[in-house]
Amino acid sequence: MTKHVEVSFTDLLDKVSTYMDEEDIQRIKDSYHYASEIYFGYQSMTGENYVSHPIKVAYILTSVQADAATICAALLHNIYKFDDSINIEQKFGKEVASLIDGVTKLKKLTFDLSTESSISMQRKILVGLTDDVRVIIIRLAERVQEMRDLWIQPPKEQKRIAIETLEVLTPIAHRLGMNQFKSELEDLSLRYYKPDVYFDIVDQLNQTKSERDYSVKMMIEDVSKLLNEHGIKHKIKGRAKSIYSIYKKLDKGKKFSDIYDLLALRVFVDTEAECYQAIGIIHSKYKPLPKRFKDYIAMPKTNMYQSLHTTVFGYDGYLFEIQIRTYEMDEVAERGIASHWSYKENGSNKIAHQNLMDQKLQFFRSIMDLNNEDTTDEEFVSSIKEEFNSTIYVFTPNGDVIELPSGATPIDFAYKVHSAVGEKMVGALVNNSIVPLDYPLHNQDIVKINTNKNSMGPSREWINMAKTAQAKNKIRAFFKKQDKEEYLKKGEEILNKELHKRKISASEFFQEENMKQILEEYKFSDFNEIYIGIGDNKISPAAIINIYTGDNDSKEDILLKKVITPNKTQSLKKDIIVEGIDDIKVKLAACCRPIPGDSIIGFITRGYGISIHRMNCPNLNDLNERLIHVSWGDTEGKKFVTSIVIQCEKKDNILLEIVSKASNHNINIESIHTYNEQDFTTFSLDILVENESSLTKFIRTISSIPNIVKVERSIR
Question: Cα separation of 53 and 62, whole Å?
Fold first, then answer.
C-alpha cells in the first residue's frame, strides 16, 4: 500500500491554483526556482533529483490546502543542509524563515525510545508545537513522504522509524485532528514495524473484498433511496477501515470476523439538524446495535472531531458502521487544525471558525504553561501523554459538556472549569453522591464541585491525584507562589536579624543607593528576589551586608584574596583540602566529575562556595582569576561518581558483557543511557569508583571486549 506517486512542479501548481491567488502562486514559483538551484546536482535516496522530495512534501500539504508561506517553507525546508550561509529571511521574508528554522530544529531531534534521552526530545517537540503549529504540519507531511519511501531503507532502520512515527508523530497528528495524515502514517508504520501482521490483515481483507464491495454498494443504494424519500440532500461513500485500526482490535483479542465496522458508510448532509434527521430515518429501517451509538456532534472530541456514529444490521444481515456529518465537519475531521486554511470568509463565519481553531490550540498553549513550571522531562512528557489517551465526557450540573482524559478525577474537572474553582474546592459529588477527590470519573457522569471561599487552597497531594497537565500545572503554580511568599517573609526576617546583630541601622542600610548597588551585584531587578534567595538559603545575608559595609569578608572574597597571597592554613571539608579558610561549601563539579587521583582545581563562585574541577576541564577556560589551589583529603574507602562513554559496533548482549565486567571490578553502575546510530551504539555510564587508578583498570578491561571501538571519560 505504499504510494509511489510521481509529482511534478506543474502538478503542484495545478493544485495550489485551485485555492490561491496569483501573488501567492508567484511566491511559490520563486521558492521552487531558488530551491532547484541549491539542490541542483544532488539526488534523493530514491535516486531522483533531490528537488523531487520537497515537491512531494509540498504536494501532500496541498491536500490540507496549506497557505503560501507553508508551501514555500516545504520547498525550502532542507536548504540549510546544502548551504547554511543563506539568508532566507532576506530572500523570502520572516514568516517563511521562521517556519524553515522550526522544521530544521525539529528534524535535529532524534528519538531512541528505549532510553531516557527520548523523553527530553519528546518534551522539545511538544513545546515546539506551541510556537507555530505549521512547523509540525510540515514535519508531518514530510514524514508521510519519508514513510512512502521507507522501502529504500535497511530493515533495522525501517523498524526504528516506524516505531518513532507511531510513538511520537501519530499521536500529535491525532491531537491536531489531521486524520488523513494519521491514518496513512499508522498503516505504513505497521507495515514496517510488524510486516507479518500487516500482510496477514491485507490477505484477510482481500479474501472478502469482492463480497464486501457488493454489500457496501447495495447498502449505499438502499440508504440513499431512503434519505431521498424524506427529502434530505446527501452524498454517501463507502469507508475503508484502516489496517492499523483493525490491528489494534485484533491485538485486544478480537477475531477478524467479530470486527463490526469493516463495512462502513459515511453520509454527508448540509446541516447539523439534518444529521439527526438522517440517523433517525436510518434507525427507523435498520435496527441499531445497542451501545454503539455515539454523538460526537453534541460532544466533540478534543481535536474538535464531530460526527454521529452508529452500527446497524444492514444489507443481507451484515453489520454496518454509519457515520453522519456535515461537509464542514468532514473538512475538520480529515484536515484537523489545517482546515482553517479552507475558510476565507469575512464576518461572523470567519470569527466562528477562528474560535474553533483557538479551542483546538488551547491544549498546546497549556503545554507551554506546563513547560514553564519546574517539572522534570519525565513528569512533563508523562502529563502530556496522558492527555493524548482516550477521552471521557462528563457534565456540569447545568448540562455543559467537559472533556477529560480517561482516568481523570474531580480535581481535573474543577480546574478544567476554572482555576478558581480548583483552588477553592473542598469536595465533589458525582451523580449526587459524595466521592473522594481521587475518584476516577466515567463517561456521562454529572459532576458538582463544592467550594468554600475560605479554603486555604489545594493540597500538594493533589498533584499526584490529578491526571491532566492543566490541573497539575495550576497546582504547582499555586505552591510555587506560596513558597515564594514564605521565602520572602523568611528572608526579610533573616536579613533584619543580621543587621540587628551587627548593629547596623535598617534605615541607613535600605537607602535607595545601597539597594541599587546590591541589585546590580546580583543582577536582580527587585529586592524581593534578594529576600527570596536568602529565605531559600541560596544567598548569604552576610554577603549582602558586606556590600553595604564595604567589607569583602565573605568566605568567597577571602578566598579570592588568598589566590594571590595564599597562607599555610588548610581546611578539610568533606574530601577536599582548601587553602585559606575553614567552613566553606565545597562540591564536585558535575561537568567533569573528578575522582581521587585526578589533578584538581577549585573555582570560586560568590554566594555558592567552591566547585572542584579536573585540571583539564574545558569549562575553566579564561577563569584564572577565580581559581584556587585545592587537593584531595582522606578519601580511603569512599566511592565517587564519574562518567564514561563507550562506543561499540552493534552486537547482541554487549551491554551484558559491560555490566559483568563492572561487577568483577567492584564498580557500581548508577545509570546507563543508550544512543543508537546506524552502525554503532553508544553507552553513557555514570559509575561509582574509588579513584582514578581503579577507573583506568576498568577502562582498559572494557576496551579489550570485542567490538568495542572507544572508551573514554566524558566532560559535559
Answer: 15
| Range of weakest confidence among 132-141, 273-282, 530-539 | 530-539
Over residues 373-428, the pLDDT tens digits come to: 555 555 555 555 555 555 777 888 887 778 788 889 999 999 989 989 999 999 99
Q: What H or E segment, with its residue span, contains residue 24?
A: helix 22-39
Interacting residues of 603 by C-beta distance below 8 A, sequence separation 6+: 589, 610, 611, 612, 613, 620, 623, 626, 627, 628
Domain 204-340: state its class.
alpha beta
Average pLDDT, the chain: 80
**Edge-to-edge strand ranges of the sheet holding 264-269:** 235-238, 264-269, 319-326, 308-313, 294-295
Q: Which amino acid type is present at position 275? A: C
Q: What is the 3-state secondary structure (H, E, C) of 551-588?
A: CCCCHHHHHHHHHHCCCCCEEEECCEEEECCCCCCEEE
**pTM score over 0.90:** no
Identity of the amino acid at 288: P
Q: Between these two residues, 218 and 550, which has the higher pLDDT value?
A: 218
Which one, of 141, 145, 135, lies nearest residue 62 by Cα?
141
* Band (563; pLDDT cuts 50, 70, 90): very low
Boundaries of every domain in the chain = 9-175, 204-340, 477-549, 555-632, 640-713
Cα angle, residue 503 at apex, residues 500 and 504 outer, rounded to 5°: 90
Helix (H, G, I), strand (E, B) or coil at 8: coil
> According to the model, what pLDDT value does residue 554 have?
47
Residue 624's contacts (CB-CB under 8 Å, 6 or more residues apart) are none
> What is the architecture, at CATH level 2, of domain 640-713?
2-Layer Sandwich (3.30)
Residue 41 class from Cβ within 10 Å (0-12 exposed, 13-18 middle, 19+ buried)?
exposed
Q: How confident is the model at residue 338 (pLDDT cuts 50, 70, 90)?
A: low
Give φ, ψ of 577 to 5 degrees.
-95, 120
Residues β-bridged to residue 236 = 267
Provide the grid cell at 257.
Answer: 470476523
Question: Residue 621 above 80 pLDDT?
Answer: no
Q: Helices 68-76 and 9-16 meet at what angle, rounded to 10?
A: 170
| CATH node for 9-175 | 1.10.3210.10
Cell numbers of 378, please? 519525565
Interval 668-679 mean pLDDT: 78
pLDDT at 676: 76
Strongest mean pLDDT among 108-112, 176-180, 516-520, 639-643? 639-643
Mean pLDDT of 471-496: 86
- Cα–Cα distance between 492 and 588 in angstroms, integer? 31
Sequence-distant (≥ 6) Cβ neighbours of residue 115 within 8 angstroms: 673, 674, 675
Residue 379: the pLDDT is: 55
Rounded Cα–Cα distance for residues 696 and 681 (Å) = 22
Range 584-607 average pLDDT = 82
Grid cell digits, residue 404: 477529560
- Please report, as a single letter, which amino acid is at residue 302: T
In b/e form, how buried is each residue of 64-81, taking b as 16+ CB within 10 angstroms?
Answer: bbbbbbbbbbbbbbbbbe
**Whole-angstrom Cα distance, residue 614 to residue 488?**
37
